[in-house]
User: Fold these one by one.
Assistant:
Number 1:
Amino acid sequence: MTSRRPASARAPSRAARATVAFVAIHAFHAGRAVAAPEAAPQTATQTEIEVARRTFASAYEDELAGRFASALTKLREVRAVRDTASVRYRIASCLEALGKLRDAREVFLSVGDVPLGPTEDHAVTTSAMDHARALEGKLARLFLRVDGAAKEQARLEVDGVHTQLTAGSTLLVLDPGDHTVRLSAPGRGPQAIQITLIEGKESSLALSLVDPPPPPVAHPRYGNTVGIVTTTTGIALVAGAVIALVVRETAISRIAELCPAGTCPRSAQPEVEGASARATAAGPVAAVLGAAGGISLGVGLYLVLRPVAAPTGAGAALGVGGTLP
């Protein structure tokens, strides 16, 4: 197809486009007897061809009104019945208007693959080649490279479409604008990166596959220092609680000795009051120390006996980075 492109063609003028449109419509609405044999599938009936003619006219009206998506849908229905150079030209024009420059260029290039019917003019093919060459300069190019030991197993997708890699790289021709690149590999979760390509420019993007970190290893010694300190503190607090209880019980026993049958002699009154004060104070102290010691002891034993994963260093299973000069 490249050999058919004019060596010094300019973008078609408004008059040229109007001429092409007139030729396309006239060719499509020409009589049944003059239709190119290759234009319609053998299974198409005359009724289907008549419906296709009306659909083509409706699609062209949509195109003139700026309803390009509607026109494109109708033109594709027409092409399924009657595939002509004029139909392909109008499909490519709608694709171009919708910003799908790459697809438009491919369809413009394919116009020359369809033999012209008796009523079709070579202006259709010439204009299609001019459009295709003009779109060539508007398309963006993206060079993708995948690094890493697992690059041979990598799966690369651009805008949801699988892209084949050759020796870990590929060159893509894309529409200018935003695109999504997804990279994945066995044992590595997919990650995506958003890129914006500039019209007529070539960009490059380097992606790297990073080996996943090894699984965490159980290491019973990690956390033991805190556990041992906490356990020791708990034991000390519990021991303090026991001592406080002993002091309390000793004071109560002394009071009982000094005051048999509940009667305290006047001479023992000071000692009885002192023992009573000690018993009264030791009770709450024992309760507080016992509670704190029990909690500390429980936490300490948990930290000592529970295996804790050793730190392994963070790292992404799949690293995606790149440059867009």
Number 2:
Amino acid sequence: MDAPLNVLPCPRLPHPHCPKPHPPWRTTGRAALTARLDAGAKAHTHRGGSGGDCVQVGTDPGSRDRPTTMHSMGVHIQPLTGHGVVTRTQLLASGLTRATLQSLIETGDVVRLDRSRFAMPGTEPHITTAVAAGGTLTCVSALRHHGARILAADAIHVRRPIRRRRGRNLEESVVECAAPSGMPDHPLDGVDAALGIALTNHSDEDAMVILDSILNLRIRSRSELHVALQGHSMRATRLFARADAGSESVLESVVRHRLRTRGIGVRTQAPIPGLGRVDMLVGKSLLVETDGYEFHADRESFREDRRRDRRAAALGYSVVRLTWEQTFSGWPQVLADISAIIATRRHLRQPRTPPTGSKRPMRQ
């Protein structure tokens, strides 16, 4: 049975969006949220004598999610932290009446997802779709929600227990991922659970992009990831060992992974005297730079890249600059060109050291 929402006493002030003054409120109980809801989510209820129920389901003050407030028929609702999905039992236990809940459903202020679960205002559409399909948002979709970088994934990735699969056809935009049985039935998987499923269902390249971004963006530390991946496959352990916190983009992770897979040694974010940090250094003097659109979309960035290339050539470096299209549509030719440079041992030439005191801007 679902636990009621955590009910907290309200301050003796009217709700900021409520037009009617409230007499001193009484609380309707106190209980912890179940494991189905994020630990930071809180809700509180106050009841006014002249204006129906006033229910507020809100975010924890420390949450990064910005609450969206909605006022309808005297009911003030804010989405729960992280997902915004609650059960009928939790809403009724918080003090909301059945009549008011039905009115909110009819006006579209609350969306019914199935017989017992509802989406509050501001719920992310992907979570709504996953729950309506009887599942949990997981894999790369959940990781993107938590801030990780992933390769293009237009589909919504869900996992479903067997009991929720009957009679529910998935939309074309929804993909069901293989997942261990017995996982908690809640709207959104956390980082560790979603990562485990992503490592099971996706290629080494996809997994490397995810692992790199989790480390680079400090979503998890390397020690935390080590603990989270204990008990996973040898493949997961191997990929984790190769993950690089220095990779700053999807494109950089993909190029590094492909080069290392072919036995080409690569140093990431290597500092070059007189030039600054470069995306990748092969040998002593071959620089591989990736031009992801997000970092090179303006004219100023274009000019700065060309200035760096000119400076690198003056110092004796060879530069290979790769775009997204070249990497994903023309990789065989890219690999052939880099292999040709390595075959002539040009990547082992000793570059020139800039004069002492040379002041060239460093890329941060």
Number 3:
Amino acid sequence: MNLGKIIIIIGAPGSGKFSLCDFLEKKYNFLHLKITKLVYEYAKKDPVLEKKLENGEFIEEGQVNEIIENFLNYNKNRNIIISGYPRTKNQLEFFKKFKYRTELIFYLKLDDEELLKRVQNRHICSVCDNRFFSNKESCCGVLFKRQDDEENFYKKRLGLFVKDHSEMDFKDFNFLEIDSSDSTENIAKKLFIYITRMNITF
């Protein structure tokens, strides 16, 4: 049985990672590893972790790595797209054990002002985790705002992301940076143009 391949989408909170991964999952049958959703599910059973999330802190790298590794090993024959991981230099080093399956790391870049504007309007479905940029939309569950999307918490998260991202070296991977101010569909088209040029097949 052939091993599945991996694409990683990274970027600051609010850069459109989840929306792009969700689009690719539905259109191209990728399995979307929703690390943020998994972390929040873990937090429901762990008061310490829940408190850290409420304070806008990232969880311990070892715990994140364990979640990722278990998921990838269990789904080793599926093509997987990952949003929001790796976030740090140490996580990137850990992930090199899956380099043989990783085709591309795709970085969504957006200026701070636009990022803040997005998260201030972001609402999430309590059931399917879909993202909306208005509370007037409807979905299968109740739309809510994450506490760590509040401006003070968000600026703290953004600062941590910028610091961690500056320490990461992607030289061992195929790495592509793109402006994420475009529509999700157009960004997906650009991604697959690059994949085609690289002769990557799934």
Number 4:
Amino acid sequence: MCVSDTFLATSLLQGAAGYVFRETDAGLVEVPPIPPETTQIFLQGNEIRHIEPGAFSGASKCFIMFLNDNMLTEVRADMWGGLSSLSSLYIESNDISEVAPGAFSSLPKLKYLSLKDNSITQIDQGMFTGAHALVQLTLDDNPITDIEQSSFSQLADLTTLNMANTDLSALRAHMFEGLPSLSFLNVQGCEISSIDPGTFSQNPLLASLRLSENEISHIDNSMWQGISSLYYLYLDNNNIQSLSGDMWHGLNKLNTLSLEANPINYISEQMWNGLSGLKVLNIRDIGISYIPPNTFAPLRNVHEIHLQDNRIESLNENIFGSDRPEKVHLALGWNPIQCDSRLCWIEEVEGEGWLVVTSSDTNGRPTCANAPSSAWDDVDFGCNEV
């Protein structure tokens, strides 16, 4: 393809962060010549199938490039020659199925890489060899079924790994080794049904783990070995049916636990052992109709408990035990709550200031099943008759 000087002039614009080369949705089938003053390249929405060696040889000042929505099928190291300053590379929504060993080794400053929505089926050892500067890697929406041992072993600075909506069915102990700086891992929306003991043991800084929308039916404390720094844990929309008393052992710093939409059906005090520092508990839509006394007693520092979309008709005044939290928002929306004298205790403790009953999150009030047309605060609970 012959590219005229007029084409280059109209494609290169000066922006706040330097010169921007933008040629999107233009029907390009190959990379056009890139002016040497270019600092940003936008080539998304074209029909580029192949990148010749040296295509970017004059773009040594470029620090960010978008190649989304093209037709690339492979990634090789010789594609990036000349991009010595590139720190962000986005190659999303192509048809990449092959990533050669050391494919990004010629990009010494690359920190942010996204290969989202391609056709990668396996993460091979050597795929990221030489990509030492990576801090964020996104592999969402690929049909990945396996991660070879030591595939990430050279990514010592990686803090964020996104692998949501892949075809992973199990997490094995070696998959995330070599990632000592990893703090955020997203593997939600996969097909994961099992997690080996010690899977995250080489990720001591892991703070946020997203395991929602998988097929997990069993969890125990062996899964959390080595990640005592975990702060956020999301297990929504799995098939967890029971919680054991010691399953959270070692998660002393956990701030937020979400178990929404699991068929648990029953909760008790023993289920929260080891979670004294927890601030947010989401047990929305887990099928419970009754909360026994002292159920939330271990959660001495809890600030929010989400109980929406269950089958709860009433609440026992001793659900927090004798050692009450400082202040709690209790979300009860979309339950068949019977507003009667059994709930008079709520009015009393709300007056003391440590409990706030809401509908959803921290807003509004629940609806009474026995007085659906009346606002919660206008319903006569019969407290004066007790």
